[in-house]
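Hi there, hope your week has been kind to you so far. No rush at all, and the record is pasted right below.
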Amino acid sequence: MLLTRTAGVAVLATATLSCASAFGPCPCGTSEPPTDDNLLLYVSNQSFAVDPVDMLVRIDGAVAVRDNFEVGSQHNWLRFSLRLAAGSHTVSAASSQAPATADARFDLADGERIYCVVNYWYSPKRGPDAKRRVTVDCQKQPPLFV
C-alpha cells in the first residue's frame, strides 16, 4: 500500500481543536509535528450553513480520510500525517454536499514535505448563485495558519 499512517486517523476527525493531529491537539501557530511523515493534510469545513459536512479525501485513488467535519469557529483544521513514496501524487476531495470534486497534483522528492489544505465552502448569504464547493491546495511551505 502506498500510504502508511502513524496513528488511527479515521477517528481523528472527532477532535474539535484547531489543527488537531494524529499526535494530539496542535493549536495553530505551534511548530511542526514530530514526525517523518512527508504529507501533512489539513481538512476543514468553512461553512456555517452545512454543519457538519461529510468529506472524502483520496490520495492517488486510495481513501485517506472519510469523516464528518464540524465548522467550529470556522478556523478549525484537522491535521492528518501520512507517508508517501517519492514521485507524482494526486489529492482528491469530495463531499455529497458539493456537486464537484477538487484535486491537486504535486511531485514529491525524497526528503521533501508537502502540505495540502482541503476546505468545504458554502454561504447562502452570497445569494441565489452561491455555489457549494470543495478546494484542494498543495504547497511546499506550511499554510499560514500553522
